[in-house]
Amino acid sequence: MTLSSALLAFLGVGAVGLVAPKGIARLRLSRAKHGSLTGHVRWGLRIARMIPFYEYDEARFFTADGAPPAVAAEREKGFRRLSALFHARFARTAALTAEAREGISDLQFTGTYRVPFQFSRIVRSALPAGNFLARSAGVTVTDLDGNDFYDLTGSYGVNLLGTDAYKALIAEGAATAADLGPLLGGLHPVVADNVRRLRAISGLDEVSFHMSGTEAVMQAVRLARYHTRRSHLVRFSGAYHGWWGDVQPGIGNPVPADRTYTLADMSERTLRVLATRRNIACVLVNPLQALHPNAGAPGDSSLVDSSRRAGVDRVAYAAWLRRLAETCRASGIVLIMDEVFTGFRLAPHGACEYFGVTPDLVTYGKTLGGGLPVGVLCGRHDLMKRYRDDRPVDICFARGTFNAHPYVMGAMDAFLRHMETAPARALYDGLDARWDGRAAALNARLEGEGLPVRVANLSTIWTVLYTVPSRYNWMLQYYLRAEGLLLSWVGSGRIIFSLNYTEADFAAVADRFVAAARAMHADGWWWAAGGTTNKALRRAVLRETFVARKRAA
Length: 553
Ligand SMILES: Cc1ncc(COP(=O)(O)O)c(C=O)c1O
Known about the structure:
Layout: H1 3-16, H2 21-31, H3 41-50, H4 58-61, H5 69-89, H6 91-101, H7 105-112, H8 117-126, E1 133-137, E2 140-143, E3 148-151, H9 163-177, H10 190-202, E4 206-210, H11 213-228, E5 232-236, E6 260-263, H12 268-276, E7 280-285, H13 314-331, E8 334-338, H14 350-355, E9 361-365, E10 375-379, H15 381-384, H16 406-419, H17 422-426, H18 431-448, E11 453-458, E12 461-466, H19 476-482, E13 485-486, E14 495-496, H20 503-522, H21 534-552
Parallel strand pairs: 3-13, 5-6, 5-7, 7-8, 8-9
Antiparallel strand pairs: 1-2, 2-3, 4-10, 9-10, 11-12, 12-14
Helix pairs in contact: 1-2, 2-12, 9-16, 10-16, 12-13, 18-20, 19-20
Bound molecules: pyridoxal-5'-phosphate (PLP).
Pyridoxal-5'-phosphate (PLP) binds next to helix 11.
């Protein structure tokens, strides 16, 4: 029970009548928040600010869960073996990373937050994985030491077709743009073709070009506010829409996002708020949340136990989106589908087609740039308009130096034309069945070997789940790397496959995945005392935090 629902229960139905209408609206809003900290973003930020830094020394590193000496010794032996392998195998890549890290803030951040902070320093020095890569081909990438890895990063979702395809699309796009060159302001004729295709794909009237998904979302929200003359946007708990402050309230953003409501996904109470509040301009939906409604992006740095959950109920999520769309329509709220991640990945016309929903505005990005950076907004004519005929000075300003850059437009044109070809269309035939089948086969193998690891997926977007309570699940990313499987810095929470993975490629990945889990299991990381629960593990971390706070005071 959340704080707000407890309060309502305490007041009782009769007493609610005594509360002023404004108070009722506020309570209703509060009840529409998800009970977790992803729903209570202010509390999340407050609590985050109270958590002091502390870390484990070498001994505690292996016994954070109270493991007995024999288990700790197994873990330590495995860790030293892995460390020797990393130092030998990734020497050049790690050396350049260490040198560059000092001057690249992003590397400092991602390097620190690959694993829970209590373990981070020791892991960084013992398992220097490195961030530099020399080449990509097929479904693999090669580091500076000449090691090949199967690419499970998916380039943050950009890589839908395989890196070779994007190299060709970029070259084709550059050839298209070559005569005009990098001229800005005037449009290359290929822009007109892109607009025509994007209108057909989105089913919407107009298009604007931006440089990133974040910017496309900014523009969508700005237009919704302009046309509705309302102030607030609604996003769902845990959903990522880029790093602009208004769509990222709470942890990660130092400024309060005062005109953002973070509400529970797939919730009747949310629909009631949308139906009754008059200050909501728009609702943002990231359809990727279908895989884990109300949970944030599953990064390994927050893996303090094994409570990560995921799994898609396509019918239920589609029904929810339909009701959401109806409610928005009835309340004059702009529905924005943020397809920056899911666009072209789930179906030719993206998640809108996959889940059967028609939004007012839709954002695209990532793969649509054909390998180059892009953000795109498509929308209804009345919402995309940036000025008022009857109030000529009341405009909605949006520009960007590099918008509709000829080389990006050329690569986008190559991508969109490619997506109309028969081979590209064929990629979607049986797509879900293929990837669901691969996930099920891998899960059957993991279960058959008694390994406490499973995968859950939304088509080619996967996440790794853990079935026994453990403080050490994040170690799997290092065992996977030792087996030649490359993950992004968020670790096992997000695996993204490109569509060019053949059965043989996937079989190789599955073999290595099982081998990695087997090795980690043998090294004792998944030992658990009888009766250990995830709750008990979280409580233990909480106790450590209190002790560290006391010590710091
Ligand atoms: C759904 C969604 N929206 C917006 C963005 C932001 O896009 P960009 O990183 O290009 O700014 C992302 C990026 O991951 C995303 O997944």
